[in-house]
Amino acid sequence: MSSWRAWTVWGIGVFAYLVAVVQRTSFGVVGLEASDRFHVGGAVLSAFTVLQLVVYASLQIPVGMLVDRFGSRVMVSIGAVFMALGQLQISVAESVVTGIIGRMLVGMGDAMTFVSVLRLVPLWFPARRVPLLTQLTGMLGMLGQLVSVIPFLALLHARGWTTGFLSLACLSVLVVVLVLAMLRNAPHGTARAAEGSPEGTRAVLAAAWRQPGTRLGLWSHFTVQFSGTVFALAWGFPFMVAGQGYDTATAAGLMSFFVVVALIAGPPMGRFVSRHPLRRSTLVLLITGLTALVWAVVLLYPGKAPLWLMVVLVAVLAVGGPSSMIGFDFARTFNPSHRLGTATGIVNSGGFAAALVTMFLVGYLLDVQHALGLSPQGLYSLDAFRVALAAQLVVMGFGAVMVFGVRRKVRRQLAASGVHVAPLRVALGVALDEARAKRLARR
Ligand SMILES: N[C@@H](Cc1c[nH]cn1)C(=O)NCC(=O)O
């Protein structure tokens, strides 16, 4: 049994991450109000989100290194202070520049939270619980999106922009108080191992990168997470409404379905990972293959894709979020605890870097087709989207090749330590034989 102390620390960590997700997603839900306040259209507004993501992704590795050095408590508190300052700035900002500075501060604080919170889990809980708790951390944090969409939006509509964003700043202040009062980096006695490393910071980074298991985590995260992120944060809505011709209510319903599926998929994914640790990369590849297949069917479907097909697409994309947590499991199982933050930061940069590159590629391909007169029905026509969104298949293919390549190295390393990974066919045969033998023994 884990102590109440461990659950309290984890609970506060999860709350801090949930609040970070609220801060991250709060601007996206007030697009119309932001357009009025800053007197700008969609293109400039998307710069707020893109810059916030650029800051978030580029800070992952430095943050990981800092967590290994200073521990989760300091990093989560500093992150919450940055987010409080960012939202305070947004609450009074009236120009694009001051607004973007606010969002970048939020991105900085957000970047410090997830990696630091994940690092608490293996330090406070026994190894067998870690995969499921890691999934639950990601899953519960996602509920922050609903806080943005429901109570925050209602408050902003009732009391106005400044009160809405000031309340979010106060939420992060509450996180700082809770973290300083009750969050500890590790149980007594393990605190030294959990803070500061016997190696120098650069040596920690080099060692984490040299470990093929970290890179397998990076490419797994890269390959399975980006398509869902691109869909949810950038191109999903324009594709469904302007490209496919769905009304906004249906598109909004599909987006809510995305969140529900991502929430439901977390626990089974965690259980699979703890029961079949040698099949993690196979699951990543299977989910990547399935995502590519469903995208190909949607993009090649003659005319508007039927609703059932869009439901399947959204479900597959939503599973990508929980699946990407497999990347963190690779980081954890292949690195000692004093390198865990750094390795987790490396892994977490994968999916977000891939998402940024893809967001840009899709926008660029839409623009180029329009400029060359190849999309006469409009910039956001279905045919233009077919070509632009197909770029995802190239990014997915690249990621899958990297997963295959680095997995070979990981398996060689495992074999050297006496762990041999049987081909899937053989392993499935053995599992079926065992199940049959168990059934017979029960008769
Ligand atoms: N894979 C996500 C988290 C997640 C879990 N379930 C669905 N999504 C991830 O990498 N998150 C990083 C972050 O900062 O949120």
Write the layout of secondary structure elements.
Blueprint: H1 4-26, H2 31-38, H3 42-70, H4 72-92, H5 96-111, H6 114-124, H7 130-159, H8 161-182, H9 191-194, H10 201-210, H11 212-243, H12 248-275, H13 280-300, H14 307-334, H15 340-371, H16 382-389, H17 391-416, H18 424-442
Bound molecules: the ligand N[C@@H](Cc1c[nH]cn1)C(=O)NCC(=O)O.
CATH architecture term: Up-down Bundle
Query: What's the CATH topology label?
Result: Growth Hormone, Chain: A
The assigned structural class equals: mainly alpha
Reading the helices and strands in chain order gives HHHHHHHHHHHHHHHHHH
How helix-rich are the residues, as a percent range?
Answer: over 70%
Low-confidence stretches: none
User: What is the strand tally?
Assistant: 0
Keywords: Lysosome, Membrane, Transmembrane, Transmembrane helix, Transport
Main location: membrane
Catalytic activity: L-alanyl-L-lysine(out) = L-alanyl-L-lysine(in); L-arginyl-L-alpha-amino acid(out) = L-arginyl-L-alpha-amino acid(in); L-arginyl-glycine(out) = L-arginyl-glycine(in); L-lysyl-L-lysine(out) = L-lysyl-L-lysine(in)
Protein name: Lysosomal dipeptide transporter MFSD1
